[in-house]
Amino acid sequence: MDIISLFEPPFNSDLLIKRKKIRKELLESNVDFIDKKIAILGGSTTHDIKDILELFLLNNGIRPTFYESEYGQYWQDSMFPNLELDSFEPDIIYIHTTYRNILHFPMINDPVETVNQYSDETYEHFSVMWDQLHKKYKAVVIQNNFDFPDWRLLGNSDASNIHGRINFITRLNMRFAEYAQQHDYFFIHDINYLSAYCGLTAWSDPFYWHMYKCTPAQSTIPYLAHSVANIIKSIYGKNKKAFALDLDNTLWGGIVGDDGAENIEVGQETSVGQAYSEFQSYIKAHKQLGVILNIVSKNDMENAMSGLRRPDMVLKPDDFIMIKANWEPKSQNLMDIAHTLSLTPDSFVFVDDNPAEREIIKQQIPNAVAPDIGDEPEYYIRAIDKMGYFEVTTISNDDASRTLMYKQNAERSRAEALFSNYDDYLRSLEMKAEISAFSSLYLSRISQLTNKSNQFNLTTLRCSQEDITAYANDDRYITLYGKLSDKFGDNGVVSVIIGKINGDNLDLIVWLMSCRVLKRNMEFAMMDTLVNKAKAQNIKTINGFYYPTNKNAMVRDFYKTMDFEKVSEDEHGNSAWKYIIPDEYINKQNVIDVNEPN
């Protein structure tokens, strides 16, 4: 069995638990890992959960270090002095509790007031703990909601009767969800759904609880670890960003070039057509999350477009950023799309019913994702959705408008071709920038950029929204975000700088920019504002740092273009630079109208 298939459901828990060889192979892979410290506070035995979670995180490019509480000590570790946890300084705290950690369930004869009291006490037991953890560690907190027991004293009434355990747990889960809606640092891990997905009988096998004090059962631990890892990789920008979709027998049934657009199966006339339409609706819904849709199909363009223009097609040509319908290798077409959109090829989920095409993609593009969707369209959604490629932890306004932004970029590219002088082209765009200290309006987007930007990213420091909030509220830091708009539309927040004040020095710990605004002079506008902010705080020198990765070689000499002087460079390519602020600073750009909001 190849290592990639180990991380695709159905999971083989026996192989994953024997993890040493898998771990070694993952650690030796050519991946730029980000390092994170994760505390697991358990209401049951968590050792196997920790070991398998490590594998899923490594597979997502995250190298974890763990603190693990003793059995059942989640409350004590959270609420009382703990020098070991304090010195660990976790980035993420995962609280693994289940229904077995609920202390008081209603009895049949309890009055309503007593049942509500039990609910309040259970909720407060957890919410006080979350508040304490946040106050003390400023870490991201991930909390299981509650699974259901696999038995019901009241039968079906257990869900509706106020004394039923199912009813009691359901109401608690809603209160947990409300807390998550009100706190940016807090995320629910939905084991209520996960246990149903695995099946309650398999999930809550009582043998493992009574023998090992372990819940869920061993066979379902990989599903739990995969699910937790999806939340963590989403927080740190490891989600996929785009679909690359085949057409024939993927978005519709049949071969449009042979059968004709009028004879392909889609729409409500047949059960197979309904399955393809439902799959198209599922794919189209991803645009709301900012996922970019593209076509990669071996077809004549005319035939492809005739299929997409059918009136009963859910997905229309305008839903796609790029449509590659030709007879070139699909791997080459995918690489071309990635280059045009300034994305890395491993940002795409390649969806194709043909196993040979999927294998070619995997062979030709390192770390490419090409899920086995099978050959039955009614199961395509399940095959993709269970992988959690686009796990949602935050949604920004920019996400909803990302398709429009990429289309506007295409219009800019066409406009550029009309000019022989590049400066004239830039002026024709009528660009306006908003550059200012971090605002609460954009904290989610700023966090996303620190986690998603790989190419124009000098230090690749990954920050949660909680981290960004802390920087914004700390006088020891200068923070800047940059928005850019022009006559074609608004690009949203595209650049971020964070600098730490150290006497009369400013150490830049973050400088990044979205690749969709490359060569637009935005980096010079950010530099101008940065210098002005630094001078206002009597800073004399700005220190920049470049830490190379597999993806950010394009900014290796960036500081040189900003007139920084290189101070040092080690054998790994890590370099330090300095810029001594002159008494009379001359702006480096004059094609963008820069404003600071009131």
Model description:
With 598 residues, the protein is α/β, with parallel strands linked by helices. The protein has an eight-stranded mixed sheet with strand order 15-16-14-13-12-11-10-17, with helices on both faces. It has a five-stranded parallel sheet with strand order 2-1-3-4-5, sandwiched between helices. The protein contains 24 helices and 17 strands. It has three domains: 4-235, 3-Layer(aba) Sandwich (Rossmann fold); 242-385, HAD superfamily/HAD-like (Rossmann fold), CATH 3.40.50; 415-595, Gcn5-related N-acetyltransferase (GNAT) (Aminopeptidase), CATH 3.40.630.30. Strand 7, helix 14 (301-308) and strand 8 form a beta-alpha-beta unit.
Fold blueprint:
Layout: H1 13-17, H2 20-27, E1 34-42, H3 47-59, E2 62-68, H4 74-79, H5 83-88, E3 92-96, H6 112-137, E4 140-144, H7 165-182, E5 186-189, H8 191-198, H9 200-203, H10 206-212, H11 221-235, E6 242-245, H12 256-259, H13 271-285, E7 292-298, H14 301-308, E8 322-326, H15 330-340, E9 348-351, H16 355-364, H17 380-385, H18 397-400, H19 402-416, H20 422-428, E10 431-436, H21 443-452, H22 465-472, E11 477-486, E12 489-502, E13 505-513, H23 522-536, E14 541-546, H24 558-561, E15 565-569, E16 575-580, E17 592-595
Parallel strand pairs: 1-2, 1-3, 3-4, 4-5, 6-7, 6-9, 7-8, 10-17, 13-14
Antiparallel strand pairs: 10-11, 11-12, 12-13, 14-16, 15-16
Helix pairs in contact: 2-3, 3-11, 6-7, 21-22
